[in-house]
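Q: what does this look like with S-adenosylmethionine bound?
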Amino acid sequence: MLIYRRVERLADSNDLIVDIGTKDGKHLRNIPGTTIGVDLELNYPLQSERTSYIHADGRRLPFQDDSVDYVIMNQVLEHVDGRQSLLREVARVLKPDGVSLVSFPNRLGLNRPHGLPRWLSMAPKSLGVHVARRLLSSEQYDYYRKFIFPLSPVGARKLLSEQFHRVEYITVDESSCSTDIYGDSLGSRLFVFSLPLIARLSELRRFERAFEALWPYVGYECTLPASETTAR
Ligand SMILES: C[S@@+](CC[C@H](N)C(=O)[O-])C[C@H]1O[C@@H](n2cnc3c(N)ncnc32)[C@H](O)[C@@H]1O
């Protein structure tokens, strides 16, 4: 959510915005400009009527070089085997002053993707697969083995820096915090209630690194070298 909200604020009506791994496109509804949702599987009812959808692999994007203003990847990187190819493609299609926004669950954070035990994301993939085979149902195990490649902020920064000149951590943003994301239990409500304060704290330089390392979700804004001279 965080990065979709950010593009809602940054983009204008002339921009081309590509959302890789869009699923049902529901987060694109309020983004200005031309929005295109790309996904390997488009088998959900599509939720944004003003969006065009393309059935494609993010590792082979059907766009020309230097043609896209914003590329969004929300909770996609951790599902892709071959992240370097994906990021190379993103860098290829982005305009020189384009921006890519990336967010994924932090393998060091205490989130619990797809009902897996929390600590499993911290294990190396090979150990994770071994343990998953014993702990999970065969369907869950198959999903874990094929589609989950946990990623930490350290690993992500390394990968992103191979393609992008500037990789900036996006602090926790209260606009992306709601019971829709965290659930409706009393604990979640209290948590969401305290999020505005947490969001302020995460903006303080001295806390930012700690949030990046440990917050359940990580977000980055990435730009190519030329953007240094082209202020957006
Ligand atoms: C967890 S969903 C995220 C959906 C959406 N971005 C959101 O934030 O609600 C991950 C999506 O990425 C898609 N996906 C995985 N690998 C992909 C690839 N190589 N190219 C395009 N889409 C991919 C999956 O099909 C799935 O729809």
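Residues 111-148 form one domain. Confidence is low (pLDDT under 50) at residues 227-232.
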